[in-house]
Amino acid sequence: MPNQAFDESRRRLLRGRLRAAPPALRPPWSLADRFTDLCTRCGACVGACPEAILRAGDGGFPEIDFRQGECSFCAACADACPEPLFDRGADRPWTLVAAVGPSCLTARRVVCRSCGDACPESAIRFALEPNGVARPVLDASTCTGCGACLSACPVGAVTILTPSEAPHAA
Ligand code: SF4
Ligand code: SF4
Ligand code: SF4
C-alpha cells in the first residue's frame, strides 16, 4: 500500500538544502514524479540489484549510486518492487545522460580516455584540440545513462544528469 504523500521539496527546503542537493536518481523505469508518494521504502529493490548500485538514500528512499558501478538494465529492481511505481512499457528506462565536467584531465593537457573505454555504447568520442590533446565529446542521443563512465573517471569529472540538469542534452 502506498505510504502517505511525501512532500520532498518542502523537506529539503526546511533543511536548507534546496539549492545544494541535486535530485536523487531513482531506479530505471520508475515513475520519478510520483516516486516518494508510492514508494514504501521497503528496500526490496535495493536487495535485488545485482550491481549493488541501489542504496537507501535521503529519507530511506532508494537512490542510484553510480560510484558503485553501472546499471545493467536487468530490471531486477522493477521486478522486486511490490508497488505500482515502475513502468516497464516505457520507451526508455530513464532519461539520464552523462556529462563531462571541467575537471576532466584533458583540460589540463593530460591524455586520458578512461570514460570512452568504459562506455558500452561508444557514446563518447574524442576530438583533437589545438593543444594536441583529444577531449571527450558525448553523444547524448546514444548515451543510455548507464553510469559506467562515472566510476571509470580517475578524477570524478563525469556526472550523470537528469533532463532538468542537462537542458541542452537531447
Ligand atoms: S536495472 Fe538491474 S542493475 Fe539497474 S538498478 Fe535495477 S536491479 Fe540494479
Ligand atoms: S521495492 Fe519499490 S516500494 Fe520498495 S523501496 Fe524499492 S521502489 Fe520503494
Ligand atoms: S552513461 Fe553509459 S552510455 Fe552514457 S556515456 Fe557513460 S558509459 Fe556511455
From TrEMBL:
CDD domains: NapF_like
Family classification: Belongs to the NapF family.
Binding site for [4Fe-4S] cluster 3: 143, 146, 149, 153
Keywords: 4Fe-4S, Cytoplasm, Iron, Iron-sulfur, Metal-binding, Repeat
Domain 4Fe-4S ferredoxin-type: 27-59, 60-91, 134-163
Residues at which [4Fe-4S] cluster 2 binds: 71, 74, 77, 81
Name of the protein described by the UniProt record: Ferredoxin-type protein NapF
Function: Could be involved in the maturation of NapA, the catalytic subunit of the periplasmic nitrate reductase, before its export into the periplasm.
Chain sites annotated for binding [4Fe-4S] cluster 1: 39, 42, 45, 49
Gene this chain is encoded by: napF
Superkingdom of origin organism: Bacteria
Main location as per UniProt: cytoplasm
Cofactor(s) in the UniProt record: [4Fe-4S] cluster
Subcellular location: Cytoplasm
Subunit structure: Interacts with the cytoplasmic NapA precursor.
